[in-house]
Amino acid sequence: MTLWGGRFAEPTDADLKALNDSIGFDQRMMAQDIAGSVAYAQAIAKAGIISQDEAQTIITGLQQILDEWSAGDFAFLPQDEDVHTAVERRLTELIGATAGKLHTGRSRNDQVATDFRLWVMDAIDRIDVHLLQLQTALIDVAETHTETLMPGYTHLQPAQPITAAHWLMSFFWMIGRDRQRLADGYQRTSVSPLGSGALAGTPFVVDRVWLARELGFGAVSQNSLDAVSDRDFAAELLFTLSLLGTHLSRLGEDVILYSNPQFGYITLNDRYSTGSSLMPQKRNADPMELARGKAGRLIGNLTRLLTTLKGLPSTYNKDLQEDKEAVFDSVDTIDRLLPVVIAIIRTLRLNPERMRAALGEDLLATDLADYLVRKGMPFRHAHHVVGQAVRLVAEDQVKLSELSLAALRQLSNLFEADVSNVFDFEASVSRRRAIGGTAPEAVRDQIAAARQWLQEQTR
Ligand code: ARG
Q1: CB 32 within 8 A of CB 123
Q2: Is-above-0.85 flag for pTM?
Q3: Do residues 379 and 373 touch, judged by C-beta distance below 8 A?
Q4: Which of 155, 192, 221, 428 is catalytic?
Q5: Cα separation of 79 and 23, whole Å?
Q6: What is the CA(402)–ligand 1 centre distance, in A?
Q7: Contact, 145 vs 163, CB < 8 A?
């Protein structure tokens, strides 16, 4: 017997049942569903709708179901449409007709919204722990490379020398903003819809505030119509995970490039590299390619849910059942990805000699222009003069520092003997010591600020 069979003379068509059932995926909310029902039984007992004895019978039954589920002994039956009906069916088997009182004033509409929010809150907490570990790993590696120089790129063309720590720390802040978004989204997720009924609210005097607190929610929804259909929290999580995935894809791309032998800046630990079945020399950064590739999947899930929500008429519609698989898939994707990314960063070997060897003097062209600026030339003019010097260098196949003073003075008489001081990568980097710059001294301050940030972030 289904939970809503009374109205129908014929059983549901088997194909429709296969389409309609969500038990295949929403059983993942079993713990949340049971927690919600335990609290709800207490609330309706407090409201005098059932007796304390009945509440106790229901709660004991629910606890047994949770035990069965945890032990892997819970047996689903063909009529179990979703997690809510499966629990109620089993509860009826265990305690008889009293089970039928649990659903008084409650609808699967407020029930599923409650379960799903609780599930998302758990997921946010779990992902946040991983992200903290990733940030810590980034700081730890960065800290040992504040003096290591490497080329910095714009347009993927060599641009200016930077410190390797500065490169690593750039990802710390991206992940930091992802964590802020998660924490912010948590606040909007932590709002209890329980007690909204099917759409119009419950006619029984259940203490919604007590219920919310009992379940760990921070607030109670104020509009039952909104509460049963609000999936903003799910969309927000999917967006946050999409942006996180985007950040991880960018980290992945840098790691892929820099571990390419033609760069050779970093080496992935053997445990996190993969080989080729054909080419024995290959050492691939597959996990980082997956980090890059999974972003597509995460963004797809966001698009999938937003498209489902768009244009839905007021309150609950069955379309909303599509919300869960998108969220489960994105959370599973991130849950699988993060431990590997964290381990890769923790075990990453930087090769300072290779980074150093890749520093060409053309990366000091800006510094050469700045030299002229310090002598009084407007920057635009200096840019042009140094551009001419770079052209000479390219024609004569020499380095910038090998141009004679006489040749430079042909371009500008502001060049003097002290120009030779410009051709020093360390000096170039250490001049950039304003807050947020790449100088070792500024990066050490940045790392201290990052540690401070971590202290303040813990909520
Ligand atoms: N399995 C449903 C879902 O995930 C539960 C809510 C069903 N509500 C209803 N009125 N049919 O959305």
Answers
A1: no
A2: yes
A3: yes
A4: 155
A5: 10
A6: 75
A7: yes
Give the pLDDT confidence score for residue 279 in this predicted structure: 85
Residue % of the chain over a pLDDT of 90? 92
Separation of 108 CA from ligand 1 center, angstroms? Answer: 6
3-state secondary structure of 282: coil
Say which residue the tokens 């790449």 belong to. Answer: 438
2 lines ligand 1 (CB under 6 A): no
Out of 51, 70, 276, 420, the active site residue is: 276
For a mutational test of ligand 1's pocket, the pick from 2, 87, 114, 321, i.e. the residue with the most ligand atoms closer than 8 A to its C-beta, is 321
What pLDDT digit, counting tens, does each position of 276-301 carry? Answer: 888 888 888 899 999 999 999 999 99
How many angstroms does the Cα of residue 247 sit away from the middle of ligand 1?
34
In the three-class reduction of DSSP (H, G, I as helix; E, B as strand; rest coil), residue 290 is classed as helix
Q: Does any ligand 1 atom lie closer than 6 A to the CB of residue 320? A: yes
Domains (range + CATH), the chain: 5-104 (1.10.275.10), 109-206+217-357 (1.20.200.10), 361-457 (1.10.40.30)
32 lines ligand 1 (CB under 6 A): no
10 burial (CB, 10 Å; 0-12 / 13-18 / 19+) is exposed
Cβ–ligand 1 distance for 85 under 6 Å, the answer: no
117-155 confidence digits (pLDDT tens): 999 999 999 999 999 999 999 999 999 999 999 999 999
Task: Write out the two tokens for 60.
Answer: 């004991």
Tell me what pLDDT residue 148 has. 98
Q: Catalytic annotation on 166? A: no
The owner of tokens 């930087």 is 350
Question: Is 440 in contact with 147 (CB distance < 8 Å)?
Answer: yes
Q: Is 108 in the pocket of ligand 1 (CB under 6 A)?
A: yes
User: What's at 272, amino acid-wise?
Assistant: Y
Active site residue 37: no
Nearest CA to ligand 1 atom 4: 321
The neighbouring-strand residues paired with 150 are: 162
Cβ distance 338 to 127 under 8 Å?
yes
Regions of the chain short of the pLDDT cut 50: none
